[in-house]
């Protein structure tokens, strides 16, 4: 259990615009916040998952963008405002699609200077004294153009490619009306704004060793409501969808592999990509991420080697609320820093390598990452060893309020949390481990702070 405190006093700075106050003016309001069982009650009022600076974010900063709202359609000049908790003296950075726009709030963004389409608005706050950081991101739709959006109804591969080329740098919706088998990849590369969607869940078969969709030059692009069958791919690492540009959304897409080929489901090589509500099955790397400021949420991935794999993906990628089942490694953070891994459910670890090992969340040479509120449970009894959370040569991470249970492979050993040699100065707090072979934390690092874990 987490150590009980009677109350915590926080200072919340609401950064608002006020006439005559100048850039960066804000008012400071004091609140007394009463802590719940696992943190300060937030919107949920129970475990502190949404609490202000509770055990799920010890010593950190909470940032919430007030304006604009998530998924809001905006035009003209808009004001960006944010709420900050956990710091009295800090610096501010405002990013639009990961490009620096301002170092102050409120910030007036002239949206007529950018193209219509999807844009990420990110606010990053850094405490001047401690260096602790917090951030929030919202996705908005810029819509200033008066020219119409056209629908293109396509039932063949040629018609899809022709529609993309016809739209060019303009705006268009491509609706795939019939199941098709591709003989080559679809190139989304004309520099326009596109929505590519199925009429229902239309099936796209990848008929050989090539990507299904290669998104390489767009202002914005959404791919949604499709089933992509990539079982015919036999060459390693070919993805069903590859993204090499920004402002891309992959939503409600199902991708199927044959559980034998080392291919990727979605390969992301660009910043500001959102993947949500997708289902991926039987793919070696379900989602492979080599980019920043991406948001991977509410996806279901089954029977992958790496369900979600971050490789040299630094700076505020958010991996949240995904369900990962029968995977050898649920989430791999490989040489990637400053990411947030929260509220994921990882179960039945390791289905693909009998006699090997399974890991719920694995950090290798990964620093300044928050791992909070995840549930890691069960193994499939086909492995030598299973680790719930494993940090290897990883520094200054926060492992907080995770639930780890029923890791008891036969043969082998189930270990809840392991900080191996070279994993130093990490904060491990408020985690709950039970019914594993080894519930206590194995700490082989230096200067790690272990508090409030059950068992300690």
Task: Output the keywords.
456 residues, eleven-stranded parallel β-sheet, flat, mainly beta, Immunoglobulin-like, 2% helix
Note down, in words, how this protein is organized.
This protein is mainly β. It has three domains: 8-142, Immunoglobulins (Immunoglobulin-like, Sandwich), CATH 2.60.40; 147-278; 305-456. The strands form four sheets. It has a 21-stranded parallel β-sheet that branches. It has an eleven-stranded parallel β-sheet with strand order 14-16-18-20-23-26-29-32-35-38-41. Strands 1, 2, 3, 5 and 8 form a five-stranded antiparallel β-sheet that branches. The chain starts with 7 loop residues before the first strand and ends in a 5-residue tail after the last strand. Residues 1-58 have low confidence and may be disordered.
